[in-house]
Each structure stands twice: as C-alpha cells, then as structure tokens.
C-alpha cells in the first residue's frame, strides 16, 4: 500500500493497536517466565541432588568398608566360609544399587509433572516470541514504507558523506537526528532511514554503532554483512579509538584525568542512566581540557561505550560535576539550542583492506 500524508490517522491507529498488542505479548512472556512452577521444580530438583550426593557419599564409605572386609576374608577364610562371606558383601553392594536406583526413580516420578508443565510453558513462550517478532517486523516494514512514501518527491536533507567504498560508509550525523528509526511513526526519520531512501540499490545497509539523537558527529555504516560483523567486533572488543568534543556548563578544577564509574539503566528511569555501585557496569573515560574558562571545552576519549556515558561522566559529582552544555536530561534545560557534544574523530581498521582508517569532523560550536 502506498502511504501518503492523508493516511496519517490510519497509521496512528495501526501504531496504537500494534504497540498495545506488543505490550500484551511482552507482559504474557514475563508472566510465563516467572511462573511459580519453575521455582518449585528447581527447589525439588536441588533437594534430590543433595539427597543423591549424600547417598553417594554413604555408599562410597560402605564400599570402602566392604573392600577392607573382602581383603580380610581372603586372608582369614577358606572354602564355603569364604564363599558365604563374599556373597554377603555382594548382596550389600546390590542393596546399595537398588537404594540409589529407587531414589532416582522417585525423583523422576515427582519431577515429571513439573517438567512437563515447564516444557509446555516453554513451547508457549517460543510461540509468543515468534508472534512478537513477526508483528514487530511487520510494523517496522509498514513504518518504513510510510516513511519512504512521505519522502517521495520531497527534498530530504542529504547527509554529509565523509567516506564511502564498496563495504562501508562514513557520515557526519547532525544533532537532533536519530541514528536508527524508533518504534513509532514519528521516530522514523533517522540517518539509516534517509540513507535507505537515498541509496535504494544498497541491499544491505546497517549502522555499526550509534550516537545519541542529540549528539552530532562521525557515524559508520556497513554495506555488507561481513563488514558489519567485522566492524562490530572491533567496537565490542574496544579496538576503535574515539574522541568527542564537548562544552561544559561550568568550570572544572582538573585539566586531565580518567573517570571510572559503574553505570546502570534503572528500568523505572529510562532513558536516564545513573551511577550504581551494585548493579552498574564499569565505564571509563579519559578527558583533557582543551580550553578552560566559564564553559570549558573538553576532549573526551571513551574507553567503553555505555549509554549516555560521556553525559553522565560530565554531570555526576563523582565525575566532572559539570553537565555538558545543553544537556536537559542531566543538567539544566534550555541553556542552548542543542547538546554541545560532537563525535570528533574515529579510528579503526578497514574490514577488507586491514588498513587503519582515521576520520575527523570539526564541531559546529
């Protein structure tokens, strides 16, 4: 179906129905994963594991005793007396085996109904996951189709291309533009969406990493699956060198240093990140003041890539205690038109030629 602006109410209705259904599926999945039967099964399985281990210890001790007695019988008995004594040891061994087998049978009989219930639940979970995935994919395709139709004939702002070849594309992302489309129709305008419209012949086009919507600067996209995988590994293994330029909202005392804070995304505070010593994951940023003053210009060199890492490291008292200028989430709202944070340089190894690639972009602030 070719969507147009006149179809927006219809799109919004489909969006509402789809997101409601996706939320229902997610809630049902969570409920199934938290069914009490799983806990009961685990508790009883652990109890039987303990009983079997205790029985095994006891049986090993009995076997050691029988081995000593067997040696003693061979040294002190002969003929029918020896045969009778050895038969007695054999019966004791058989009795231990029977005892062990009976406990395992009892375990199997008691756990079987729980295991069957869990198996049925897992089948239901897989079915719901497939439904969720299919519905989500269908909705994404509908939104992309609607977005593409909206762009047809319009003068979409082209993105500055810093580099391109057969396997990768490097662009200079403007502030305020998403890296990838969101879940809602009004969140479809993004670097990826624009490039897919402008480059329809690129069968594979995916971002390798992301920048916050408010952050501008260098963004890398892959034009084939192999390049996407290889570049993704470089980012995940921290082999990519990145620098950012930011302007802070107030002076700081240090000229350079390293910030190491455990960041955690509290589900109740999304998208905001916080410092949490219990649940947080390590995040490390090196910094250098480029220009001191009332609003110091700082260069950030992140070692890790946590969500909002630089923004939190700048804002929190345990970091620089000086939010990035224009950061309404971690600092003061309406200070500037945009967040003063820009991805200034990026260095990585080309996924095919293995040559070092180095790109730079000057901030417009």
Automatic annotation (TrEMBL):
Catalytic activity: a uridine in RNA = a pseudouridine in RNA
Signal peptide: none
Sequence ranges assigned to domain Pseudouridine synthase RsuA/RluA-like in this UniProt record: 168-315
Coiled-coil residue spans: 86-138
Keyword field contains Glycoprotein: no
PROSITE patterns registered for this protein in UniProt: PSI_RLU
Database matches in Pfam families: PseudoU_synth_2
Keyword field: Coiled coil
Molecular functions (GO terms): catalytic activity, acting on RNA; pseudouridine synthase activity; RNA binding
Listed GO biological process terms: enzyme-directed rRNA pseudouridine synthesis
Protein name: RNA pseudouridylate synthase
């Amino acid at each position: 179906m070719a969507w147009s602006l006149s179809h927006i109410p219809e799109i919004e209705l489909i969006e509402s129905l789809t997101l409601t259904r996706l939320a229902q599926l997610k809630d049902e999945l969570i409920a199934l994963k938290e069914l009490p039967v799983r806990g009961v099964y685990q508790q009883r399985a652990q109890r039987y594991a303990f009983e079997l281990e205790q029985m095994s210890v006891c049986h090993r001790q009995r076997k050691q005793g029988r081995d000593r007695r067997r040696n003693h019988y061979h040294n002190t008995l002969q003929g029918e007396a020896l045969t009778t004594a050895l038969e007695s040891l054999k019966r004791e061994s058989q009795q231990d085996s029977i005892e062990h087998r009976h406990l395992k049978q009892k375990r199997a009989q008691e756990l079987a109904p729980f295991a069957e219930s869990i198996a049925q639940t897992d089948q239901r979970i897989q079915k719901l996951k497939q439904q969720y995935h299919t519905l989500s994919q269908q909705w994404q395709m509908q939104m992309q189709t609607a977005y593409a139709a909206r762009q047809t004939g319009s003068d979409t702002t082209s993105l500055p291309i810093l580099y391109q070849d057969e396997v990768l594309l490097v662009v200079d992302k403007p502030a305020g533009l998403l890296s990838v489309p969101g879940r809602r129709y009004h969140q479809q305008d993004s670097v990826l969406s624009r490039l897919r419209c402008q480059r329809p012949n690129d069968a594979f086009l995916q971002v390798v990493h992301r920048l916050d919507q408010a952050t501008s600067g260098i963004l890398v996209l892959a034009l084939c699956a192999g390049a996407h995988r290889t570049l993704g590994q470089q980012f995940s293994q921290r082999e990519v060198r990145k620098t950012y330029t930011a302007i802070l909202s107030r002076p700081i005392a240090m000229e350079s240093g390293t910030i190491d804070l455990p960041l955690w995304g509290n589900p109740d505070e999304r998208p905001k990140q916080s410092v949490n010593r219990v649940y947080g994951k390590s995040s490390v940023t090196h910094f250098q003041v480029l220009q001191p003053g009332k609003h110091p210009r700082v260069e950030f060199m992140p070692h890790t890539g946590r969500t909002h890492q630089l923004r939190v490291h700048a804002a929190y008292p345990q970091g620089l205690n000086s939010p990035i200028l224009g950061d309404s989430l971690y600092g003061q709202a309406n200070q500037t038109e945009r967040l003063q944070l820009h991805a200034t340089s990026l260095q990585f190894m080309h996924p095919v030629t293995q040559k070092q690639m180095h790109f730079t972009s000057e901030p417009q602030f």
